[in-house]
Specification:
Number of domains: 3
CATH architecture of the largest domain: Up-down Bundle
Distance between the termini: 29 Å
Largest sheet: 4 strands, mixed
Order of helices and strands: HHHHHEEEEEEEEHEEHHHHH
Bound molecules: flavin-adenine dinucleotide
Number of strands: 10
Structural class: alpha+beta
Low-confidence stretches: none
CATH topology of the largest domain: Butyryl-CoA Dehydrogenase, subunit A, domain 3
CATH superfamily of the largest domain: Butyryl-CoA Dehydrogenase, subunit A, domain 3
Strand order of the largest sheet: 1-4-5-8
Mean pLDDT: 98
Shape: globular
Helix content: 40-55%
Radius of gyration: 21 Å
Length: 378
């Protein structure tokens, strides 16, 4: 069903080599020392991976979305932190400007984002608005040619590392989610600063933190799309974003599966390889089957997006299944490696820690089920 084109095959091979030779060797250190993977992003920029599905006219590489998913998967297999930074930058920041920006905004921001000289972030979550993102309360009041913005965002990927933050604010609180507007906020905006960074279970190379706005002054020309239309803009972007998180989850799960198979084939107990025990074989078979099914769901959603067809339900299915698979497969990989699986000497405990968050961000697994059910019953 999904025969890759020659171009997609080439993308896969190129990114696989980059991930294996440059990204994977740094991954354990990035995790252990909580390093921002700047060299990986520089390598990605060199290969044109910072704006893969963005048209060349706007500084991107002009690939289809499926090629971009192949790249996210390969990078996640090596380093999930690098993959999520890249995925948020591309799916959420680049696509925000591509789909909703004015020609002037595209010229000013998108060419640099897609070319990799600017890093993008996407800020919607607040302390009282997580799954219920429409309840956000960050306030923006128009004063002449500026919006004066006050409030706090939390859990923002690439906080402090990004140059441009697609930020969702309330411009008309009386209208709730229908009073939300998207603004492009440059990192040096007066009154804007990065607050506390979270100490997390995993994804240690990807900074996650607070954005604080205290009478921050954002030029009115930095409005993205129309005033009070920001919520639907965010939801449409999340459809693509969720396919990317699905691809990230497939990458993590694949890495765990390959490590488990290799270990099982060489670990001897009771005078035989543990791979010869049916208990281990069944676990590996279930892991491999789930990973392939997850990958196909990701490919299907990406292909629908490439063909310009509705893909909201399929994106949520791909994210739901792939992220649950990543959690299950990484947990079982730890089991296959026994005591070594629980220790830092092998990478599977990192895979397990990194996998968990894929079930949480860009809509939790529960929210994906709500989205799928809404599509089924509307
Ligand atoms: C590492 C990391 C990076 C992130 N990056 C970003 C980012 O770049 N930008 C950004 O804006 N946000 C980001 N987030 C925030 C993330 O999207 C939210 O954490 C997520 O949407 C869940 O919101 P919450 O944490 O407030 O949980 P809550 O919404 O409080 O949910 C708590 C629990 O209740 C469940 N729940 C909530 N509502 C329902 C319901 N209606 N039915 C059934 N169950 C429900 C949830 O599924 C969950 O299990 C990030 C989070 C993390 C951890």
């Amino acid at each position: 069903m999904f025969e890759m084109s020659e171009e997609q095959q080439l993308v896969l091979e190129t990114v696989r080599r980059f991930a294996r030779e440059e990204v994977a060797p740094r991954a354990a250190r990035v995790d252990r020392e909580h390093l921002f993977p700047r060299e990986n992003l520089e390598g990605a920029r060199r290969l044109g991976l910072m704006g893969m599905p963005i048209p060349e006219r706007w500084g991107g590489a002009g690939y289809d979305f499926l090629s971009y998913m192949l790249a996210v998967e390969e990078i996640a297999k090596a380093c999930a932190s690098t993959a999520v930074i890249l995925a948020v930058h591309t799916s959420m920041a680049c696509f925000s400007v591509l789909n909703f920006g004015t020609p002037a905004q595209k010229e000013k921001y998108l060419t640099q984002l897609a070319g990799g000289s600017l890093l993008g972030a996407f800020a919607i979550t607040e302390p009282e608005a997580g799954s219920d993102a429409g309840a956000l309360s960050m306030r923006a009041v128009r004063k002449g040619d500026r919006y004066i913005v006050n409030g706090t965002k939390i859990f923002i990927t690439s906080a402090g590392a990004a140059d441009l933050y697609v930020t969702f604010v309330s411009t008309d609180p009386s209208r709730g989610a229908r009073g939300i507007t998207a603004l492009l906020v440059e990192k040096d905006t007066p009154g804007f600063r990065v607050g506390r960074l979270e100490e997390k279970m995993g994804l240690h190379g990807s900074p996650t933190g607070e954005l604080i706005f205290e009478n921050a002054e954002v030029p009115v020309e930095n409005i993205l799309g129309e005033e009070n239309k920001g919520f639907s803009l965010a939801m449409s972007l999340l459809e693509g974003g969720r396919i990317g998180i699905g691809a990230q989850a497939v990458g993590i799960a694949t890495a765990a599966l390959e490590t488990a198979v290799a270990y099982a084939r060489q670990r001897v107990q009771f005078r035989q390889n543990i791979a010869s025990f049916q208990g281990i074989q069944f676990m590996l078979a279930d892991m491999a089957t789930a990973v392939d099914a997850a990958r196909l769901l990701v490919y299907r959603a990406a292909s629908l997006k490439d063909r310009g067809q509705p893909h909201g339900k399929e994106a949520s299915m791909a994210k739901l299944f792939a992220t649950d698979t990543a959690m299950q497969v990484t947990t079982n990989a730890v089991q296959v490696l026994g005591g070594y699986g629980y220790c830092r000497e092998y990478p599977v405990e990192r895979y397990m820690r990194d996998a968990k968050v894929t079930q949480i961000y860009e809509g939790t697994s529960q929210i994906q089920r709500l989205v799928i059910a809404r599509h089924l019953t509307k």
